[in-house]
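Quarterly update from the structural biology core.
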Amino acid sequence: MSIPASEPTQEAIPNEAGPDEAVPGEAVPGETGPDGAALAYARPARLRRPARAALTGSSPFDPEETPLSRTRRARRMARELAVLHPDAHCELDFTNAFELLVATVLSAQTTDKMVNKVTPALFAKYPDAVSLAGADRDEVEQILKPTGFFRAKTNSVLGLSQALVERFDGEVPGRMADLVTLPGVGRKTANVVLGNAFGVPGLTVDTHFGRLVRRFGWTAEEDPVKVEAEIAALVPKKEWTDFSHRVIFHGRRVCHAKKAACGACGLAAWCPSYGIGPIDPQLALKLVKSPTASDTE
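Predicted structure, tokenized:
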């Protein structure tokens, strides 16, 4: 049985813009960003007072909100995210589970865009676990150098490749319990691989994901494992992988770490952090990244 959507509780400020005023869920035809790309992710929000968290700097998590109310609100926001980001997907380039595993390990402390620049050369020379397990360390380091922390990352990809050969016949295992035993692989990386290479639902709690679910007031936890557990209780399991992509897309393109585009956000009506960024739609629209943007922060 589906849980009905909750209604926004924030008091709206009367808007004198007239009948052409933009409302949540409606795009502005023809709006374009500085690069000329259509702002597909912009949904000018009805002007209202900033939320308490934005005004006072307090936590957007409300301990007095009932679990049922929080679940209803979370699922309503999750449905809106599906409308806002129908094209959300894993932004790491890969053709198989091994490539995705290595690419995800390399994505730590760098951008997906940078990883996608170095992996073609890496996989052209070392296409599988067997070849990478026996690779020359200096050669791998030179390939990975642009990603930063390249010595540690070289240790991880060589180590996990050797572990795959020794313990899993060179194949990437499809179980969380096995994946997290590999060097450089934690729950976040394992969930990325399981969700995108094996079709096993998983929540990817990266920097963007954690920031947004806390801003949404869905959790007050900082520890990724605890965040994962609390969000798993709010979102249906079958949606976990796609939901993760949508949240990350929203964090990269709309709800930025330094200045969220609150006035152009389709989630504004249900977000207890509304107002931490510009609420004027025209100012907020300038902050929304285009569909082709990736890892812009």
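Residues 47 and 180 are 46 Å apart (CA to CA).
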